[in-house]
Backbone:
């Protein structure tokens, strides 16, 4: 009887040691709620370059990012953003603006292996955007991306965007 018990315990230990650690993609998958948003950059205006910052002043309900791994192993993203932002520019003061966007596409993550930062890549509307994963815990995720926005009237402008999500 003792021998059978030892064999059973040994078998359970062997099975437990075979469990695979979840991949970065598997750990990121799920629904994340937006909790913080900031953008910083320089806008080229007819009177010159104007540094601006945008911070959230109101995150409306239903702001979330859903990172799904589907049964066919495709990875889809649905990101709904509806935020009231506060734009601050030197010499102009501050004023509010609405930031609304819906992203629907695919995603994948790259594990930096402790050598480089982990990354999240999103492809939507034919454009791929990379996000550096600044911090990632079981219930919080902070991302940073440097993005160039092309405006037909103002030309191209580069912004650094940081977003924080919680589960």
Residues:
């Amino acid at each position: 009887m003792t021998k059978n018990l030892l064999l059973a315990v040994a078998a359970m230990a062997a099975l437990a040691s075979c469990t695979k650690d979840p991949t970065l993609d598997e750990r990121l998958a799920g629904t994340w709620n937006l909790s913080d948003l900031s953008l910083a950059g320089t806008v080229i205006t007819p009177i010159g370059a104007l540094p601006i910052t945008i911070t959230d002043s109101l995150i409306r309900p239903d702001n979330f990012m859903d990172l799904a791994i589907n049964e066919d192993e495709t990875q889809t993203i649905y990101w709904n953003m509806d935020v009231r932002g506060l734009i601050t520019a030197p010499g102009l003061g501050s004023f509010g603006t609405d930031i609304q966007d819906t992203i629907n596409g695919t995603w994948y993550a790259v594990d930096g292996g402790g050598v480089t930062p982990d990354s999240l890549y999103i492809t939507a509307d034919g454009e791929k955007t990379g996000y550096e994963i600044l911090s990632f815990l079981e219930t919080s995720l902070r991302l940073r991306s440097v993005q160039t926005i092309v405006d037909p009237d103002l030309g191209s402008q580069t912004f650094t965007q940081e977003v924080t999500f919680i589960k």
Notes: The mean pLDDT is 88. The chain has two helices and nine strands. Helices lie at 2-17, 24-28. The first strand starts at residue 30 and ends at 45.
